[in-house]
Amino acid sequence: MTTATKNPARPARVSPARSVGNWMMNNGALVGLIVLIIALALATPHFLTAGNLVNVGVQAATVAIIAFGMTFVIVTGGIDLSVGAVAALGGMVAAYSWAEMGLPGWLTLLLGLATGLLAGAIAGLSIAYGKLPAFIATLAMMSIARGLTLVVSEGSPVPSADAVNWMGRDVGFLPMPIVMMVMAGLICWFILSRTVLGRSMYAIGGNMEAARLSGLPVRRILISVYALSGLFAAWAGLVMTARLSSAQPQAGVGYELDAIAAVVIGGASLAGGRGGAWGTFVGAILLAVIRNGLNLLNVSSFWQQIVIGVVIAAAVGFDVIRNKTISQ
Fold first, then answer.
1. Is the residue at 245 inside a domain?
2. What are the transmembrane regions (predicted)?
3. What pTM, to 2 d.p., does this model score?
């Protein structure tokens, strides 16, 4: 008596064209960056020079560091409008405590970072326990932080200590702003992909109520998320201060929008639950390349704002299309 053997079901083959399409759908920012680099290399011989590429990295550094902190917030489905003002406040606290209070340089650096951490934690508390919408809570913190920066500085630049200024200098052939950006990116990647806190952020962004019912301490996690955003913003503020050897009261104006744009362009969803350090890095570099390329092509700064706005709108539209494709 023979027994018939059933052939195991074979997984459906995915055509090469569909595989490429899926990869491009998930890596749209990287594809756009590659195409843009090729176009600019053909349009101007000055783009692919070593000096210009380093300049692109330095220009991208502060926005990228802020954007890495913003990634935590957007992954949870939130928003942080205070990061530009918090960056200015962190740099100003560090400079003022050295120039006017005579504190040691290393301590002023820590105070600047602590300022950002505290500002973010306060915003997180108002969201988690005060039930304020993230938009309103961080908008209020933006106004408070900018006001404090102006009060402390009296509207004038304040010189900073060497313990801060080294972050804006070159070490050998490496500009320290780029090193700071890479360090911030690695920390962001590690938190999101290798820690319980990072996995909890994705869970909250996917479904906050389900995360709460599953036992996650949602309130504490949200406070941690906004505290991290403030910390990264202050870090970027110290890098900005270091590049100028002084804290500027109007530093960081509009940087919150660039940071949000970098995160969204990099593939994060404003609805939460999706995003990562690599995508944010690509998004920040893409914005810097666009601005750099338009400068090399002598395009007016007014038109540059229009182009950046179109890119942001396209990125959000792409995110909507992708979400519909995934849900089908």
1. yes
2. 53-74, 81-99, 105-125, 132-152, 172-192, 221-240, 252-271, 302-321
3. 0.91
